[in-house]
Structure formats: structure tokens, C-alpha cells
Amino acid sequence: MEKFTKINQEYVEEIFRIAKDVFCNGIYIKSDNHPCGWDFIDFDDTDIECTDDVMDQPIVVEAFSNGNYFSHDLEDKTLFEIIQAVGMNGWCFEISGVDELR
């Protein structure tokens, strides 16, 4: 991921691909909504099936933190729009200690 210096389609597609292939099929994003400061977006709860979908498939509220919200500031935005909103430092694949909170 070091080769990227800005958020673009290729960057977000790479996030999605690595999350699916290596990690737990989702990503954490910084959030003021969750007590730990992070929300988990579970790609199993989205209609994103391939890298092309990061640009046009909205992520529903149920995909955020195991569906714990009735609404979320970033619901119905695409993964591309969400990454743009949180920035390059506002997401990650894993957070030490957070999995124990889920």
C-alpha cells in the first residue's frame, strides 16, 4: 500500500482485494459513533463482489459494526466515498484489541 500517495480507484480496489484475500473480509474505519473509535465494515454484508463494485455499490447500514446502528453518517456511500471521507489514515485492516470488543 506504500506505493499510493492519494486516494483513487486503484487504491480502494487494492484495499478491497487485500481485505478479501488476506484479512477478515472487511476493514475498520475511524468513527465517532463507536465507543472504541472504530467501526468495522463487513464486506459479507454488502453487495460488493468484485473490485469494480467499490465505485458504485453503496454500503448499507447493516454492514457497519455488525448492524449495531439504525443509521450511520457513511451508510449508502460507496467504499470509494467512505475511504475519501475518512482519508488514507482513517482506515485499517486490523486494530490490536478491537477484535476482543466485537
Task: Summarize it.
With 102 residues, the protein is α+β, with helices and mostly antiparallel strands. It has helices spanning 9-21, 79-86, and strands at residues 26-30, 38-42, 58-59, 77-78, 91-92.
What would the keywords be for this entry?
102 residues; alpha+beta; two-stranded antiparallel sheet; 2 helices; 5 strands; 16% strand
Summarize the structure in words:
This protein has 102 residues and is α+β, with helices and mostly antiparallel strands. It has one domain. It has 2 helices and 5 strands; from the N terminus they run αββββαβ. The chain has helices spanning 9-21, 79-86; strands at 26-30, 38-42, 58-59, 77-78, 91-92. The strands form 2 sheets. Strands 2-1-5 form a 3-stranded antiparallel sheet. Strand 1 and strand 2 (38-42) form a beta hairpin. It is globular, with a radius of gyration of 12 Å. The model has no long low-confidence stretch (mean pLDDT 90).
